[in-house]
Design a protein that fits this description.
Luciferase, domain 3, single chain
Length: 543
């Protein structure tokens, strides 16, 4: 027997339709490449998005065709995301921080037909154009006044001119909710990037889950500022889906992600929620502390990408900002865990609750997790047994795009993270499998050591790597960016770490660098650090 309920497919076009109907006057605010702040409403966005979808259809774009973007977080990118997916085509957001060879590889691998690009990236695309074998039209995301007088790109169109070829009364098509919606590629730290192909059903379910009170708790009274780029992990972690779903004001920072520019938006636009990686928040906290006027309307921040330092989290809490530390990855759409405390944890002391926030939270509805050994056997949820983090759920990938080899292990996806689960199912990442350090037969967590080191006065940033050692196989090396004022010395750092970690976890040396190298998704490039300092212990001793 089947239920007697309406069978309407879960399609992304329904999100903007909802915002247009019920939150039409709510603003979308954008910083643009050209400079000025742009403001319009969900009603304006919905009209222009329908017009764009119509223009693409008139050009000949059909369902499942891939449409690429090289763009920042702004209103035109928002229109492309919703217009392309609503049409039934596939939005392919390319990460411009990838090296040119990888950009060309994924554009060809995806077989993109159209490429929308910001003027920022025009020089890159002009150099790569001959290698983009499937792209037939380039659309520069500007108005006529900002079109270049000359370009080597053939068939370069002006976005606003192209938009005018469409019909603003275009009606969204209805199709199978299992149809592909968007395509994102992993950052490719080892080998070529791999494609993760989302569906309308998976995206809508993910959106519904992260918007709930148990997860991000979005509402129409929120003002959401995703610092996470829209080209990273499903549209700024799905925030450009969630904002129209609840009718929240959306603030898009464009190319200006420096702390002063973000702080200005927070104060001027009444931002209540932000999302970003720890490196952005470290600088934002410093900016807010220097301005000495609190955090404005900001109530909570969402942190993911890598483990945040406890000292940074405590700094935001002192400003009255709740820190929501979550975990996810491109392959999980991306959100997998929630920072909300369980009933038992909510009754604990403030100090205990803050300690919980350094963990990655509990799985949100729809995500199942387990810790497994190398043979796939589930390990105890005792807060001590570390193993491979395995996940499954309706918005977890089943295979990489255009790769035929089996990916799942009995229905579970191996994340590549090492973790523990405690008796309340709180997740604690202990390391990436490739970053854990094995010294003298014992394992050392690079995450734990670098988080502690980042809390040392005079340390701006810290990273821990394992490098070859003539006696112990590997030993940890602490790589530090010192603070501009009152920089810490190696002696200061060792004294600070003393008693906080096991003696055999203590790095054998500290090296100071001007800056750490970050990859396309905002994570420290530890592979590069390991190459750079691979012979350090063969030639130097601890200072």
């Amino acid at each position: 027997m089947k239920g007697l309920m309406q069978n309407q497919p879960l399609l992304l076009s329904s999100l903007l339709q909802y915002a247009d109907r019920f939150h039409a006057e709510t603003e979308i605010v954008s910083r643009t490449v050209e400079g000025p702040i742009h403001r319009y409403t969900y009603r304006d966005a919905a009209r222009r998005t329908r017009q764009l979808a119509s223009a693409l259809q008139c050009y000949g774009i059909q369902q499942s065709d891939r449409i690429a973007t090289l763009a920042w977080n702004n209103y035109r990118h928002f229109e492309i995301e919703h217009g392309v997916t609503g049409l039934g085509a596939v939005w392919h957001a390319i990460n411009p921080r990838l090296i040119p060879a990888q950009i060309a590889y994924i554009a060809n691998h995806a077989e993109d037909r159209v490429l929308f690009l910001e003027s920022t990236f025009l020089p890159i695309v002009e150099k790569l154009a001959a290698e983009l074998s499937t792209v037939k039209m380039f659309v520069l995301m500007v108005d006529r006044a900002h079109m270049p007088t000359a370009s080597s790109l053939h068939n370069l169109q002006c976005y606003e001119d192209f938009l005018q070829t469409g019909d603003a009364d275009f009606e969204w098509p209805v199709f199978d909710e299992l149809s592909a919606s968007s395509l994102f590629y992993t950052s490719g730290t080892t080998g070529n990037p791999k494609g993760v192909l989302y569906s309308h059903r998976s995206d809508v379910l993910h959106c519904l889950s992260i918007g709930g009170a148990y997860s991000m708790g979005f509402s129409a009274s929120d003002t959401i500022l995703p610092m996470t780029p829209m080209f990273h992990a499903n549209g700024a972690w799905g925030f450009t889906h969630a904002a129209p779903m609840v009718g929240a004001k959306l603030v898009l920072p464009g190319p200006m992600l420096d702390a002063m520019s973000i702080a200005e938006l927070i104060f001027n636009e009444g931002v209540t929620v932000t999302a970003g990686v720890p490196t952005l928040y470290t600088k934002l906290l410093q900016e807010l502390q220097q301005q000495n006027r609190g955090a404005g309307a900001l109530k909570r921040i969402v942190i993911a990408g890598s483990a945040p330092a406890p000292s940074m989290m405590e700094g935001f809490e002192r400003l009255g900002v709740s820190v929501n530390h979550v975990w996810g990855m491109t392959e999980t759409s991306p959100c997998g865990t929630s920072p909300q405390p369980s009933r038992k944890a909510a009754q604990q002391s403030i100090a205990a609750q803050l300690a919980r926030k350094t963990m990655q939270g509990q799985p949100i509805y729809g995500i199942d997790v387990k810790i497994a050994d190398e043979n796939g056997k589930e390990m105890p949820r005792d807060g001590k047994s570390s193993g491979r983090l395995m996940v499954r759920g309706p918005w977890v990938l089943s295979g990489y795009y255009r790769e035929e080899k089996p990916l799942l292990e009995n229905g579970w996806f191996n994340t590549g993270d090492l973790a523990v689960l405690d008796g309340e199912n709180y997740l604690q990442l202990t390391d990436r499998a490739k970053d854990v350090i094995k010294s003298g037969g014992e394992w050392i967590s690079s995450i734990d050591v670098e988080n502690l080191a980042a809390g040392c006065p005079g340390v701006a940033e810290a990273s821990v790597i394992g490098i070859p050692h003539p006696k112990w196989e590997e030993r940890p090396l602490l790589v530090v960016v010192p603070s501009a004022s009152n920089p810490a010395t190696a002696k200061d750092i060792f004294a600070f770490l003393e008693g906080k970690i096991a003696k055999w976890w203590m790095p054998d040396d500290v090296v100071f660098v001007e800056a750490l190298t970050y990859g396309a998704t905002g994570k420290v490039q530890k592979m590069e650090l390991r190459r750079r300092f691979s012979s350090h212990y063969a030639t130097q001793k601890r200072a």
